[in-house]
Design a protein that fits this description.
The structure holds 2 protein chains of 2 kinds. By secondary structure, chain A is an all-alpha fold. Helices cover 80% and strands 0% of the residues of chain A. Chain A has one domain. Chain A contains 9 helices and no strands. In chain A, helix 1 runs antiparallel to helix 2, helix 2 runs antiparallel to helix 8 and helix 3 packs across helix 5. Chain A is globular and about 65 Å long. Chain A starts with a helix and ends in an 8-residue tail after the last helix. In chain B, strand 4 and strand 5 form a beta hairpin. Chain B contains 8 helices and 13 strands. The chains are: A mainly alpha, B alpha+beta.
Chain lengths: 213, 319
Amino acid sequence: MNTLQQIRFIWKPIVFLICLLPVFLIVGDAFEITGRLGANPVEAILDRFGNWALRFIMITLAVTPLRRISGWNWLSRFRRMLGLFSFFYAFMHFVTWYVLDREMRVADIIEDLIERPFITVGFTALVLLIALALTSFTAIRQRMGKRWQSLHNMVYVIGILGVWHYWWQVKKDVTEPIIYAAILAILLAARIIRHLHRRRILRQSSPRVPLQS
Amino acid sequence: MFSRKPIKIRPSEITSESNYLNRRDFIRAGAIAGGSLITPGVLAAVVPETRLAALSNVAKSPLSTDERPNSFEDISTYNNFYEFGLGKDDPAIQAENFKTRPWTIEVSGHAEKTGTFDFDDFMKPFDLEERIYRMRCVEAWSMVIPWVGISLADVVKHFQPTSKAQYVAFETLNDREQMPGLRGRSLDWPYREGLTIAEATNPLPILAVGIYGNVIPNQNGAPIRLVVPWKYGFKGIKSIVKIHFSSTRPKTSWNMAAPNEYGFYANVNPEVNHPRWSQARERRIGGSVFASKQDTLMFNGYGDEVAHLYKDLDLRRNF
């Protein structure tokens, strides 16, 4: 087996299963095998799916800077899967909210979407994630050409909306939202710095255009 | 994050819920047989220092709901007490070694009797009563809690407020050594709450000293906390050290923190939503994952007892 095959047939399935661990733990806790969900299980499930969605967005955003720093180019092979897990956990967070918390009352949900900005913000992030998930197939990516990258740059907006949604929702304890915001700021700063740096290099190395006379 | 340290309460310390329910029937039978005419102060409320010790001479109350109380575990492990941390399970862990003796309560302001009282002396003039009340948190969850406490109206009358006293203000202990949450600036400490005199002399509010017939656990506001069942839970100030009879409306903690979200009155009202969530329905703690929520009742279902207090008040503006 060459390296690509190893990644595809051994490492990807392993990472896939690891990424599913939070689901096993939530289900295990719900049946009181691995732990407990506590006095308010619906709130606990909602929080845990939401937290994992944010964590996976951060992990996905960390792939590229990490690859550049370390030179481990194989990391990019996992980026799509990690991105899809971000979508998966955000979607489970939404489903928990829709089915268990809002009890599938459509009128309540519409009211929430209109009147409660933190829900509007979170829902917008979810809609964007759906768009990215649907366009994640290789065939679609190739067909979209350059537009694919501009669409998928939305992941930065999703990160900001996600952290904002969390920050806005908590009553008082913003410790965890601050931690997410700090991580996100570092990940975004890494990209901005690189962008500025590259522009400077390009400008310096480009040949001076002689004045037209 | 995945596992929390279990709370070190030996099972023997807790009255089992089945024993408790039997005991209730037994006491009720006794109360009927012996006649339940009790004059205030005859029984002299005694609250043992020992953690979770059984309380004696607890009278039943017609004001109790007959809804099934939440489990002791739910009541004592899922609650807010920011002085002991911001998570729902933090207080149970962090208040474990909280010292509730010696404890003094300072009574001040526009009243005939004022001074600083030792907790045991403070309690003596009053009778212990069980009040099983619904508790509706502003976060849209609720419980049924079998409190044991003394009538706040009796307490107010005992200190003989003058005509200048329009409000009763309360303060929580402000002890950085014992309360790790005070190091964070989540609220402007000490925790403060208040009621109008009319609210405080209504028969419903109590100063609670027990749950399930035993001394109240530290995390629920030991040794003495306010319970106002028609208001959101945050009005129920815990671990009280100061009671002040005031002519002006006292500042209250959550109102100070976010005046557009938490009013002074904070009456349970399904028609006035929190700016960030609906108050129309509530989740009763203790149900399964698939248990449905229930409609929130105006004044948490205590309208018959308290609606008259607000008949001239616009409850949308005075939320």
